[in-house]
Please model this.
Amino acid sequence: VHKRVTSEQKKPILKKNTKSAAILKAGYTKEKRLFEMANLGVFVSLQLALMYLVAVNFTWDNTGVFAMSLIFGALLADFLSGVVHWAADTWGSVDLPLIGQAFIRPFREHHVDPIAMTKHDLVETNGDNCMAANIVLLPTLACCGVYGEQWVLENYPLLVFVATFSVYVCLTNQIHKWSHMISGLPWWVKLLQDLHIILPRPHHHIHHISPHETYFCITGGWLNYPLEKIQFFQTLENIIEACTGIPPRNDDQKWLKG
Model:
């Protein structure tokens, strides 16, 4: 069963693998971009509608519930960012039907060229995450429309939770991108990083130490330490490898070696 190397054995891998990077970059197609643009447009419409409902139905009596819903929404987004990041980094390949080129390829490209994502525009950076957020926003707003104002009032904590969760999910890759930018960050982004409201740069650099086996949460990174302490992802990897015989990060390491 796969064993993690110690921190003393780890070496940073932050430089670009030019050959692998060029192949993976070419996998970003015109059709993929159109898909991302559509997701982004739908997300903006749905998110604004939900935030409007949250704003107009807020009362000071809801302050405690409002705060708790914010916290849990953000934490769930951070946890799921780690699960998705871990799964895409650790298993599968770019040759898999449907998800290989669309979703696994960007993760492989990111490891062979960590700075490439800082050159991605708004659409390429956030399109896929908007799709994930839309999956939650659509049924929530549908319930608001079908069941009416009484349902909105009775489920106000849920609306705050979904609004917070969907914003963080949408912005996860943008936050990730900021954590790789050496210069050009707005002052308010630096402030949010310093306050650890979003993922700080030094915190995320821990993940980019070979063989990219830890600190997968990239929304705020708040759950990275506790998940590492309980060996959450390592336990999953050991179980999967024991059942399948496939070592974790096998495909990822092939791309890194070029």
About this structure: Residues 29 and 111 are 20 Å apart (CA to CA). The longest helix spans residues 122-154.
